[in-house]
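quick q for whoever's on today - can somebody do inverse folding on this one?? i tried earlier but teh output was garbage lol. tokens:
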């Protein structure tokens, strides 16, 4: 059997690959419907005409939607986390937990690598989700993934602007993944920023498709005083990759 893009990028068991293939297919089927495309278009129109960023009806619409990162972006997340040796990752916007599996695999493997070299380390993925039914589905998927991610994910239900302020956060965060509704991106970054290590990676999804909604976030990244070097990676919809490199002399 010829290797697939997933098997080339992600060392994982056949069970995990089968699970991810099924979940990505279900997510893509939802995203490619006319109703979902119309939903996103309406949100952009409402923002441009009325400065409306969200509504209760939008929560109702999205409650059963995966809104998972596309598979190629997930491979990128995994490879960045592995190559950087990330031990503590924050994922803002877990939904059904598909994209969470990738950093969890990376963290588990990074911890195993360091322990094999005699280091005493631990690591985790702090994931956030405000919708209880989505959190429950995410836990089901992680249980199906099994031992390869068991014990790695710390899921925090509720308002992430509160759950990410808790005292039991990792002292140092190596990687921040922002896959949430755009107005939450900058507030989340500001909460996590004091814990970011020098060289930490920050990814935000759909920064090209929703550029107008990301204006404050992108303006913040582009201000040299805030310590980020940033570029847009040309995945579908845009993926903003930033590295935290503060000027220690300032």
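ok took a stab at it. sequence:
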């Amino acid at each position: 059997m010829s290797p697939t893009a997933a098997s080339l990028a992600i060392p994982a068991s056949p069970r995990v690959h089968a699970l991810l293939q099924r979940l990505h297919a279900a997510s893509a089927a939802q995203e490619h419907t006319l109703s979902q495309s119309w939903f996103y278009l309406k949100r952009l129109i409402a923002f441009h005409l009325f400065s409306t960023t969200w509504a209760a009806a939008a929560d109702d619409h999205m409650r059963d939607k995966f809104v998972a990162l596309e598979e190629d972006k997930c491979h990128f997340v995994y490879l960045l986390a592995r190559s950087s040796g990330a031990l503590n990752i924050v994922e803002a916007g877990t939904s059904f937990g598909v994209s969470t599996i990738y950093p969890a695999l990376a963290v588990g493997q990074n911890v195993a690598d360091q322990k094999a070299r005699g280091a005493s380390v631990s690591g985790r993925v702090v994931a956030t989700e405000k919708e209880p039914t989505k959190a429950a589905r995410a836990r089901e998927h992680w249980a199906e993934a099994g031992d390869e991610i068991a014990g790695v994910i710390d899921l925090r239900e509720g308002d992430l602007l509160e759950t990410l302020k808790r005292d039991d956060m990792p002292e140092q965060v190596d990687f921040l993944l922002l896959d949430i509704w755009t107005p939450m991106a900058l507030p989340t970054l500001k909460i996590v920023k004091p814990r970011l290590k020098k060289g930490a990676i920050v990814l935000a999804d759909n920064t090209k498709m929703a550029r107008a909604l990301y204006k404050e976030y992108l303006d913040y990244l582009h201000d040299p005083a805030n310590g980020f070097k940033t570029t847009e990676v040309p995945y579908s919809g845009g993926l903003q990759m930033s590295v935290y490199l503060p000027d220690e002399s300032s």
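fwiw The chain has a mean pLDDT of 90. also Strands lie at 88-92, 124-129, 153-157, 173-178, 196-205, 228-233, 239-244. so keep that in mind when u check it
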